[in-house]
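User: Could you go from structure to sequence for me? I need the amino acid at each position, not a summary. Structure tokens:
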């Protein structure tokens, strides 16, 4: 302890002699003044925080070329220009008469039933700058528009039933309709009168300019981080989940009885290869006619969805906005049960594990299968249905 000294300084008062006739001398003494002096007081200790040393960059952080960034759609490396340009979504039929060009390049592929239990595909492309033939393009169903909204994509279709009018005619809907465009053409090599409409990059850009659309993302119209991705050098193997199941074959035939599509895990590539057994066709790989490549995906999302039948023709309606439905997530040969939520037109559909944590997808392409409530599918021969 430091020594404290107390000094008493006594102020000496002068004796005042009062002179006056008959007055006595009076001595006035001032009160003592006490001053406290503290020696050697400890200064407060200042602890300097050590400067944080930045972690060294890993291969995960280093782009292969200058000016490249992680894609907001696949987490793969893309140019800044590609990443800042709005994607396109294209309606593509999936029947034996379909002649599909460019589909293997889709970054996200949606599949859902339409009338007659046939499925229609909506292919999302982030880099769509080099297509000389894309399609064939088929008609719109309004529920696909809401899935397109969450990417702020240009929605490309060829007409559609009157059920689409409400959403298509909204001022914020930026679509390209082959019925009103002069940039689509009918191909003569398809031998089909309906599945033969195509478009190319030049035509898409011409329509975008003509309609006055902006190529850059609109403020507030999409989530910049749509999917949550695991680092590409630390992939999500799902081994952290004790209830994860082995998933070497995901068979959607019970849900899509006309398409009869299924996915087989390829251990060499780490992808799920897509196969189809269309009615009247042989079972085999689902192949892009433009390049002969089989469709393959790193992630598969199964989305159980409430639906209704609208009329006697079998037109369907799906509830795209929901917080009460479940599904499954498959990647790297394993799968887990998930719950999904979509709360606004332009908000992303998000997927959560049973503990309420948003799941991490792996870098690469994603397949989204929309399943009618009450339907089931097969995983390695075992029936899987909704748990909600």
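Assistant: Here is the amino acid at each position, in order:
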């Amino acid at each position: 302890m430091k020594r404290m000294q107390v000094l008493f300084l006594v102020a000496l008062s002068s004796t005042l002699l009062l002179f006056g006739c008959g007055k006595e001398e009076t001595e006035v003494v001032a009160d003592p003044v006490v001053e406290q002096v503290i020696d050697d007081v400890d200064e407060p200790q200042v602890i300097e925080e050590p400067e944080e040393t930045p972690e060294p960059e890993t291969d995960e952080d280093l782009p292969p070329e200058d000016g490249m960034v992680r894609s907001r759609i696949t987490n793969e490396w893309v140019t800044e220009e590609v990443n800042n340009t709005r994607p396109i979504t294209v309606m593509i039929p999936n029947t034996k008469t379909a002649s599909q060009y460019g589909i293997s390049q889709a970054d996200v592929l949606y599949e859902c039933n339409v009338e007659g239990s046939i499925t229609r595909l909506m292919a999302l492309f982030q880099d769509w700058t080099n297509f000389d033939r894309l399609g064939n393009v088929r008609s719109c169903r309004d529920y696909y528009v809401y899935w397109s909204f969450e990417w702020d994509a240009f929605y490309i279709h060829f007409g559609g039933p009157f059920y689409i009018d409400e959403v298509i005619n909204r001022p914020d809907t930026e679509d390209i309709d082959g019925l009103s465009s002069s940039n689509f053409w009918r191909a003569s090599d398809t031998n089909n009168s309906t599945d033969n409409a195509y478009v190319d990059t030049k035509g898409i850009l011409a329509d975008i300019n003509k309609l006055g659309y902006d190529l850059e993302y609109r403020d507030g119209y999409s989530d910049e981080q749509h999917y949550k991705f695991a680092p590409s050098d630390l992939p999500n193997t799902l081994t952290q989940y004790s209830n994860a199941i082995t998933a070497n074959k995901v068979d959607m035939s019970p849900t899509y009885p006309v398409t009869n599509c299924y996915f087989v895990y390829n251990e060499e590539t780490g992808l799920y290869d897509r196969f189809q057994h269309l009615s009247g066709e042989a079972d085999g790989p689902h192949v892009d006619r433009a390049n002969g490549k089989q469709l393959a995906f790193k992630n598969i999302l199964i989305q159980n969805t409430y639906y209704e039948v609208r009329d006697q023709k079998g037109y369907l309606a799906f509830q795209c906005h929901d917080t009460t439905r479940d599904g499954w997530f498959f990647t790297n040969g394993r799968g887990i049960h998930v719950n999904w939520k979509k709360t606004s037109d332009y908000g992303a559909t998000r997927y959560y594990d049973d503990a309420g944590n948003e799941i991490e997808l792996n870098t690469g392409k994603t397949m989204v299968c929309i399943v009618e409530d009450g339907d089931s599918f097969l995983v390695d021969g075992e029936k899987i249905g909704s748990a909600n």
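One structural detail worth keeping in mind: The chain has one domain: 75-384.
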